[in-house]
Design a protein that fits this description.
The protein is about 45% helix and about 15% strand. With about 300 residues, it is α/β, with parallel strands linked by helices. It folds into 2 domains: about 100 residues, no CATH class; about 150 residues, Nucleotidyltransferase, domain 5, CATH 3.30.420. The strands form 2 sheets. Strands 1, 2, 3, 4, 5 and 6 form a 6-stranded mixed β-sheet that branches. It has a two-stranded antiparallel ribbon with strand order 7-8. The radius of gyration is 21 Å and the shape is globular.
Length: about 300
């Protein structure tokens, strides 16, 4: 697994560094290479951490990388030095995730957001690391302080699009929805938090049908039976969010710098795309044909 990740990242960095240098005022990429470790090695380590069973990055680096995997990284640096180098791969990780690890839309997509808390609620007033960056928000589990990951996945469980916002950003924000649904077509299933007439009209104008359950004060309406079935399968994205937090560890409250927080978050999202199996919905050819037919039933 580690060899596969490094091979892909090294090929990506060969092309990325050439283009990135054209936009930099100073050649920052050379500083990374000049520190003994090259960019692709640093990226490999931070992604591989999220695929390991380790819960603490320091222990993972000192035990797994410096000892068990020392042969893969001949120019390994100390733990403190590696932490200093991590912010330098923030931009490459973001570009790699968007350009190389996102999947194509299939016509059946699911959308949801998940909170990323950066500290315990009792410690919000004393938190200085994310002062002025993170915001308070409210999710299904109550109030939190941090950010949100807005995620769209296909019926195959692959990531199609994502966005990171402050914790107080509404899920049905029109600009956010316009940005995150650029690649979509067909049907998009979400929860009640995405009910918004302006958003639905915007998506409909681009050939995207947003399907949600109804709130108590909304009138009942008819829905094709296959849409009703797929709406009940929306738990697939909640399962993926659970894997991102409990397997890929995108959320913890031990961050000491905003830059390394985003490196941890992006590398966790990338790590999910390398998992051998994703939660998915099995649709037969007959099911896909039914999607194009109209068998309306009441919600």
């Amino acid at each position: 697994m580690i060899t596969e990740i490094f091979y892909e990242l090294d090929n990506f960095c060969l092309e990325f560094i050439k283009e990135w240098n054209e936009y930099l005022l100073t050649d920052e990429t050379k500083k990374v290479e000049g520190s003994r470790m090259i960019m692709s090695e640093i990226m490999t380590i931070v992604i591989f951490f999220h695929l390991s069973s380790y819960k603490n990055f320091k222990y993972f680096y000192l035990e797994k990388i410096c000892k068990d995997c020392a042969g893969y990284f001949p120019n390994i640096v100390s733990y403190n030095r590696f932490i200093e180098l991590m912010p330098k791969v923030f931009v490459p990780l973001g570009v790699y995730l968007r350009t190389c690890r996102m999947s194509e839309a299939t016509g059946i997509s699911f959308i949801d957001s998940t909170k990323i808390g950066v500290c315990n609620n009792k410690r919000i007033p004393s938190n200085k690391v994310f002062d002025g960056i993170a915001k308070r928000g409210k999710g299904s589990m109550g109030w939190f302080y941090g950010f949100k990951v807005h995620l769209i996945v296909s019926d195959k469980g692959d990531m199609v699009s994502f966005s990171i916002s402050k914790g107080n950003k509404s899920d049905k924000n029109r600009d956010l929805m316009k940005e995150i649904t650029q690649k979509l077509f067909g049907k998009l299933f979400g929860d009640k938090g995405y009910i918004s007439s302006p958003v639905q009209e915007e998506l409909r104008s681009r050939g995207i049908q947003l399907i949600t359950n109804l709130t108590k004060n909304m009138k009942n309406k008819l829905m094709p039976i296959m849409d009703k079935i797929l709406l009940r399968k929306r738990a697939i994205i909640e399962t993926i969010n659970d894997q991102l937090k409990n397997i890929c560890q995108i959320e913890h409250t031990r961050h000491r710098s905003p830059a390394n927080f985003f490196v941890n978050l992006l590398s966790g999202l990338i790590a999910y795309t390398f998992l051998p199996k994703h939660p998915s919905i099995r649709l037969s050819e007959n099911d896909l044909k039914i999607l194009d037919l109209s068998y309306p039933i009441a919600l």
